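Let us practice reading a record.
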Amino acid sequence: QVQLVESGGGLVQPGGSLRLSCATSGNILSINSMGWYRQAPGKERELVAAITSGGNTEYADSVKGRFTFSRDNVKNTGHLQMSSLKPEDTAVYYCNAEIRTRERPWARIKVWGQGTLVTVSS
């Protein structure tokens, strides 16, 4: 069974920084793409950053210049470095990955983590 686990969330003051991590486990053949999403209270889930299968990194306009998404293809982990945090960044952050497994290498599946809460408040 493939699993994604986010970590690194917590309470931080405005202007502070946090580093989120997305660890994967299971019988993974490859990870085609990975992304970070967030859902703020009372709002729909939105894309924060993504690394495509082609290696391109995309960011939401609201986080450009402040967030950096990196991926370790050897360890199959991802990291989201968040700086200059604002109260509006408060949300549950979810990791998502499109994965191929050894059992069904011809198929692609999407896996979600349980999320990690980021609270930006003084």
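A brief commentary: The radius of gyration is 14 Å.
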